[in-house]
Amino acid sequence: MNTDPHNHSVDLVIIGGGIAGLWTLAEARASGINAILFEKADLGCGQTIASQGIIHGGSKYALAAKMTKAGNVIGEMPKRWKNAIGGKGDVLLNDIKTLAQHQYLVPTNHTDTKLLSFLGSKTMASRTKTITHKHLPDAYKAIGLDNSIYQLNEIVLDIGTVLTSFLNQYQAFMYQVEVNADDIGPREKNQYSIKTPAGIINTQHILLAAGEGYEHLNIQAPAMQKRPLQMVMAKGDLPPIFAHFVGRSNKPILTVTSHASNGKTVWYMGGNLAEEGVDKSASTLIDEARHHLNQMMPSVDTDQLSFGTFHVNRAEPAMKGLVRPDDAFIQNNNNIIVGWPTKLALAPRFAEKVVNEVHATSLQLIGTIEPVPVMLQSLPRPGIAKYPWHDL
């Protein structure tokens, strides 16, 4: 046991308190790795709190009327998340709020008939279920849909409650600490040293899971790409819609999730609207969103809604042509691991890769029996990031 009050050793320091870092913290400690987490601001600030909370099952990636590698990789993730929500496994999220048991795929007048045939095929039988107009949920009747839709194996989560669950369970091992380049000492005797306001932390491994927020550390790392979005928010007396509205493209025209805010409902909108609207003014993009809503949801009076937009970058390993990576990614360079889950849903897969890498490259683990030292207990704890629509 380390008795130096200003010097403490662990197996893994995680830098970044988004979903990737949090899931890894839980998975690592469950596997016997003495892991702690540093977050400079609030848990989830950045990509995690800006996500729509959809645990993708791969159906969205089949809009070209064929299954893709990305679709197959992510296909197992809803089961992993549902196990955690159901209290099964090493990561437990049985106290979080599920916003919807299913995301839906809604065809428009421009949807390719080849895609519709594929969605109803045996290949997609385990991922989709056709819901005829007669059996539409009330919320979808309320927006004026007049055709069949497809129920997807994709739950939608309240991300704020996910962050709160991790904080409640692992608060003793997470600290509000900003790590700068000169805080990380060179590797000596198989360990790095990290300066904190409370003292020195020695660690065999460092995980950079801070999305785009690690570049200032000047650490050799794989090239990163940023795929930006400008999300659109509409707030009012709206029914709870969770849907991908699809046309001819292999990407949804609009992806909508619904979130409660001060007695109203916020429709949080991504898809092609958000991708292609990055460089547009907020007013121009909002006008486009109104146009889509008026066309695809004719019963909705958009004049009664309050609108806003929100910018976020999706940080990922660099890919040729700036395309979306197919899988969670990690790279280990002298026990400094850099990685991105690439999708919220892939956080369990990301954590599994990191934990396996730490076990494979550790000389000897300290383990989780070692108590949390007083020096760390004196550090502040991070809070929870605010939703993008907090001030809408």
UniProtKB/TrEMBL annotation:
Keyword Oxidoreductase among record annotations: yes
Gene3D superfamilies named among the record's database cross-references: D-Amino Acid Oxidase, subunit A, domain 2 (3.30.9.10), FAD/NAD(P)-binding domain (3.50.50.60)
EC number(s) on file: 1.-.-.-
Matches recorded under InterPro entries: FAD-dep_OxRdtase (IPR006076), FAD/NAD-bd_sf (IPR036188)
Transmembrane segments: none
SUPFAM superfamilies, sorted: FAD/NAD(P)-binding domain
Source species, domain of life: Bacteria
Sequence ranges assigned to domain FAD dependent oxidoreductase in this UniProt record: 11-299
Protein known as: Putative FAD-dependent oxidoreductase
